Amino acid sequence: MTLATFWFVVLAVLWTGFLVLDGFDFGVGMLAGVIGRDDVGRRVAINTIGPVWDANEVWLIVAGAGMFAAFPSWYATMFSGFYPTLVLLLVALIGRGLSFEFRGKRDAAGWRRSWDAAMAGGSLLAPLLVGVALGNLLHGVPIGADQEYAGNLLDLLNGYALFTGVTVVLVCLLHGATFLALRTTGDVRERAVRAARRIGPVTVCAVLAFAVWTQVSAGKGLPSVALEVIAVLAVAVAGWFAFRSRGELTGLAGGDTTDLAGCGGTDLAAFAATSLTMAATISMIFVDLYPRVMVSTLGPANDLTVTGTASSSYSLRVMTVVVAVLLPVVLAYQAWTYHVFRRRISRSDIVPPPRQTPAGTAATDPAATTGNSDSQQEAT
Predict the structure, then answer these.
(1) Residue 210: strand, helix, or coil
(2) Distance between CA atoms of 266 and 272, rounded to whole angstroms?
(3) CA–CA distance, 244 with 198 (Å, rounded to integer)
(4) In this structure, what are the phi and psi dihedrals at residue 295, rounded to the nearest 5 degrees?
């Protein structure tokens, strides 16, 4: 394996890791209002991702930075051609992040509803746009002989790319539902399981159609077919576990906050299956793409390739040393974070907002934590 190929694999892993880790964040953001129902329920859902959502998004930043350093020509063509899509992605991520921090700053229903809408909209738009961008890499966009993007915004809105975005959104929804079932108790967990049962069949059909469309378009060999089979089987397993757990909904009722006891094994298996679904779905794009990094609709001679867009050998060697040293540290830190915040969250863990007395002054619960956003009130 050459260093250029190695870094293509690294970037594929980074994009896949971003959508596996931030995918359930997006799903929780989209489902918080539906599964939470009331304000306390929504805060339970938000607090499940409060300690980890921003760290998960680091994978996107590292993927973009790695592309810039390892494949500058690929970065230049993709980021200039997909500029409108990436600007919308940035707006979605900013609005979503602000919603976590600001929705709890005022005790006003309208204020919270506005930020809940920003959270749901950003959580829906972000995976849709990422899916569209990745789908266009394989489907192809107009790229001239000078490696410049020669199309417009409408060229990005082709059927395959849009369906890729929809498929990623559906997998994120199921991924988020299984994560909420894993991390919550009582009625919130019950509604998360029911949501997973309803989303599961639709997601299975979407992943199956995506796998077939990808295979027909790319016409690659056994590695891609194997990933497609894994993706379909994994999402089917996730749906089956969600269906099976309906008989265990009373296992973690009320204020029970045990770690992964009772039906936790079922929940963990369902979450692992949706993680595998997302990983296989994104990986098949990169497997079918190699040895290209972007396909040109103006002819195979204009395709951008791994070797044709890579940095110098010296740059790739230095980057390899850096990633070999720092990546294990990042992985260890994230694993430790997930371990620390593994406890299930119940309604009893949520501090009620200040209450207004008849005289108009705020009567605050003595145990309330003031000045913190919802995402900072994770139970320890």
Answers:
(1) helix
(2) 10
(3) 13
(4) -95, 135
Tokens 């309604």 map to which residue? 347
Q: Each residue of 8-50: pLDDT tens digit? A: 999 999 999 999 999 999 999 999 989 988 889 899 999 999 8
H/E segment holding residue 355: strand 355-356
Helices (H), the chain: 3-36, 39-49, 53-70, 72-81, 83-102, 109-139, 153-156, 159-183, 186-218, 222-244, 264-289, 306-309, 313-340
SS3 label, residue 377: coil
Q: Distance between CA 105 and CA 121 in Å, rounded?
A: 20
**What confidence tens digit (pLDDT) does each residue in 119-133 have?**
999 999 999 999 999
Is it true that the peptide bond before 291 is cis, omega within 30 degrees of 0? yes
Which residue, among 195, 198, 188, has the nearest Cα to 344 in the 3D structure? 188
Rounded mean pLDDT of the chain?
A: 83
Bridge partners (DSSP) listed for residue 160: none
Q: Are 181 and 195 in contact (CB under 8 A)?
A: no
Give tens-digit pLDDT for 217-260: 775 555 667 767 777 777 777 666 666 655 444 444 444 434 33
Question: Residue 287 corresponds to which amino acid?
Answer: V
DSSP string, 114-175: HHHHHHHHHHHHHHHHHHHHHHHHHH-B-B-TTS-B---HHHH--HHHHHHHHHHHHHHHHH
Nearest to 138 by CA among 74, 68, 218, 231: 218
* Separation between Cα atoms, residue 17 and residue 151, nearest integer Å: 30
